[in-house]
Amino acid sequence: MDFLSTHQAEILDREKDNQRFAHLYGFGNYWVAFEHSAYQLCRLFSRSETSIIRFVTYPFPVVMAAVTDAELHAYSRRHILRIAEPDYRVLTTEELPFERYREWHRVEVEELI
């Protein structure tokens, strides 16, 4: 949670207009993504888990998705990662219309709250 508190602005700014990438952050045996990246992660990994995060300084619920390190490792054997740092990965994904993301986000928030 310290990471999220200190990098909240950076993460949300990165996601603001993101329609083409999945930005993943390493947390132990899991990789997590937020907002647009979470949507892309859920599309790529059907077993990804989602949850809602609320930031004190951000007025809207933020959707977070997670996959295991093993799942991401298996994926990376078949796909080239755009960035592959120890605690940060970027996957290139299919660009999708904003409306599809918005509907997914609405459903996730309704189901998880």
Question: How large a portion of the residues is in β-strands, by DSSP E?
Answer: 25-35%
Helix content: 40-55%
The ordered H/E elements are HEEHEEHEEH
Q: Give the N-to-C terminal Cα separation.
A: 19 Å
As residue ranges, the low-confidence spans are: none
Strand element count: 6
Number of helices: 4
Structural class: alpha+beta
Shape: globular
Indicate the radius of gyration in whole angstroms.
Answer: 13 Å
Largest sheet, spatial ordering of strands: 3-4-2-1-6-5
- Number of folding domains? 1
Mean pLDDT: 92
What profile does the largest beta sheet have? Answer: 6 strands, antiparallel
Can you put this structure into words, describing what you see?
This protein has 113 residues and is α+β, with helices and mostly antiparallel strands. It has one domain (2-11, 19-104). 43% of the residues lie in helices and 28% in strands. The chain has helices spanning 2-15, 35-44, 69-78, 98-112; strands at residues 21-27, 30-34, 49-53, 62-68, 83-85, 88-92. Strands 3-4-2-1-6-5 form a six-stranded antiparallel β-sheet. It starts with a helix and ends with a helix. The mean pLDDT is 92.
Q: Which properties best describe this structure?
A:
28% strand, alpha+beta, 43% helix, 113 residues
